[in-house]
Amino acid sequence: MEKIVQLLESKGIRPTAIRLIAYKRLAELDVAISLGNLEKDFMVSERSTLFRTMKTFVDKGVVHQIEDGTGVIKYALCEENCECEVGNDLHLHFHCNNCNETVCLTEHKIPHIHLPEGYKTEDINMVVKGVCDKCSSNLD
């Protein structure tokens, strides 16, 4: 837990109990999670508290939001030293149409996209949809 405290403090985040528990839960997952599903993991926390925690984590670069086309924003931990900025550290996401899980494909970076003059990029989100490795092996 001390390592999580140090990481949060290094990002300028006060390590409250809910923030520590939320970070720990995100670190245990290998998939992105919605606020609703994260809320199910916490018996006594209010949705607004979790929402504010996720917003703080996003604002401080601890987690990133993923819009995978399902209409529900999902959250995943950023990689170490991630800046989560356009042109830096942006990666593909994969959404499985079978199990409905979304995963970060951090080793597959989004290339820089040259826009016409006058256009300004604020965010890039690339989601590949299909069948994940777990589901495809179960289909054989």
Task: Describe what you observe in this structure.
This protein is α+β, with helices and mostly antiparallel strands and 140 residues long. A three-stranded antiparallel β-sheet has the order 1-3-2. Strands 5-4-6 form a three-stranded mixed β-sheet, with no helix packed on it. Strand 2 and strand 3 form a beta hairpin. The radius of gyration is 16 Å and the shape is globular. This is Transcriptional repressor.
Low-pLDDT residue spans: none
User: What percentage of residues falls in helices of 4 or more residues?
Assistant: 25-40%
What is the number of helices?
5
Radius of gyration: 16 Å
Beginning-to-end CA distance, first to last residue = 41 Å
Protein name: Transcriptional repressor
Could you give a quick summary of the protein structure above?
With 140 residues, the protein is α+β, with helices and mostly antiparallel strands. It has five helices and six strands. Helix content is 34%, strand content 21%.
Explain the layout of strands and helices:
Blueprint: H1 2-10, H2 17-28, E1 33-34, H3 35-40, H4 47-59, E2 63-67, E3 73-77, E4 91-96, E5 102-109, E6 127-130, H5 133-139
Parallel strand pairs: 4-6
Antiparallel strand pairs: 1-3, 2-3, 4-5
Organism: Maribacter aquimaris
Protein name: Transcriptional repressor
Pfam family, one: FUR
